[in-house]
DNA sequence: ATGACTGTTGGTAACAGA
């Protein structure tokens, strides 16, 4: 089974690239993040035999699972998922639970597509929200991780190790690399999940995101923040970042992470 | 080079992203 995760940075803007990529990469299951729409344009995918489970807000966020090996027990969000409200917005009495998680069972594999909150800056309310969100996600999946083949995929907005950013010295005081964020990720992997390491296709350093600005992609100054966390019922035979999807006209700033696996 | 982008909309400027 070929499983992929891709932050498309708007499925509307990325539709030509996404539809083309589906036929090139031939994934069985694709987890998408930042669809940025309320209505997923699924016509072409469906014509190729895919089903789509989409959880969308509109302008921000939005996650989907696209599968050609079945799509059952869809969960829009997870149990106990916290919401977010800016502290200075008195009009919002209740925090908004955002479209950042969708789960489904595809061909016997329980799979989640996650768009973890960015955090913005250390000390920002969004940073506390990010940590809380990860802690509650950990609690929500604690049981089902042990019940069968399981993967959590998506844009975690965390670089697990210093080597997962182009130069850790440029990240002093930044989000995505703090001990607290890594501890929150560690609490998830401690449930029995392995951070699948994509192999190098070109550079020794393997990233999945490169800022649009300043030629960062061509300098390979990126970050590995799109992850596939798999339990021991998943046997990985290959994993790589599809850098070709980051090239050319109108790419996302993220590339797909592709994992070939079988279920034990 | 203190630069460099891209996406969205109660839209044409502001904000978010990472």
Shape: globular
Q: What distance lies between the first and last C-alpha atoms, to the nearest angstrom?
A: 12 Å
Strand order of the largest sheet: 3-4-2-1-12-11
Any low-confidence stretches, pLDDT <50, length ≥5?
none
Rg of Cα set:
17 Å
The CATH architecture name reads 4-Layer Sandwich
Q: How many domains would you count in the coordinates? A: 1
- Helicity, in percent? 10-25%
What is the number of helices?
4
Mean pLDDT: 95
Q: Strand percentage, roughly?
A: 25-35%
Structural class: alpha+beta
CATH class: Alpha Beta
> By CATH's scheme, which homologous superfamily applies?
Endonuclease/exonuclease/phosphatase
H/E element sequence: EHEHEEEEEHEHEEEE
Give an overview in words.
This protein is an alpha+beta fold and 264 residues long. It has a single domain, classed as Deoxyribonuclease I, Chain A, CATH 3.60.10. It has 4 helices and 12 strands; from the N terminus they run E-H-E-H-E-E-E-E-E-H-E-H-E-E-E-E. A 6-stranded mixed beta sheet has the order 3-4-2-1-12-11, with no helix packed on it. It has a 6-stranded mixed beta sheet with strand order 5-6-7-8-10-9, with no helix packed on it. Helix 3 packs parallel to helix 4. The longest helix has 17 residues. The model has no long low-confidence stretch (mean pLDDT 95). It binds one DNA strand of 18 nucleotides through loops.
């Amino acid at each position: 089974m070929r499983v992929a995760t891709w932050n498309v940075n708007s499925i509307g803007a990325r539709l030509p690239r996404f539809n083309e990529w589906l036929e090139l990469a031939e994934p069985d299951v694709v987890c998408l993040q930042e669809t940025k729409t309320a209505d997923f344009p699924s016509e072409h995918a469906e014509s190729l035999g895919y089903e789509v489970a989409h959880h969308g807000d509109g302008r921000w966020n939005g996650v989907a699972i696209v599968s050609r090996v079945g799509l059952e027990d869809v969960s829009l969000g997870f149990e106990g998922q916290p919401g977010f409200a800016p502290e200075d917005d008195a009009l919002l009495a209740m925090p908004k639970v955002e479209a950042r998680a969708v789960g489904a069972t595809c061909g016997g594999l329980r799979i989640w597509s996650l768009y973890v909150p960015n955090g913005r800056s250390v000390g920002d309310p969004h940073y506390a929200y990010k940590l809380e969100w990860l802690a509650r996600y950990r609690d929500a999946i604690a049981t089902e991780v042990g019940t069968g083949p399981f993967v959590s995929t998506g844009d975690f907005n965390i670089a697990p190790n210093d080597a997962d950013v182009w130069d850790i010295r440029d990240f002093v005081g930044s989000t995505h690399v703090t001990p607290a964020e890594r501890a929150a990720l560690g609490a998830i992997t401690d449930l029995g999940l392995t951070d699948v390491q994509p192999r190098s296709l070109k550079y020794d350093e393997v990233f999945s995101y490169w800022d649009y600005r300043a030629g960062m992609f061509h300098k390979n100054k990126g970050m590995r923040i799109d992850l596939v966390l798999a339990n021991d019922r998943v046997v990985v035979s290959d994993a790589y970042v599809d850098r070709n999807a980051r090239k050319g006209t109108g790419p996302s700033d993220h590339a797909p992470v592709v994992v070939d696996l079988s279920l034990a």
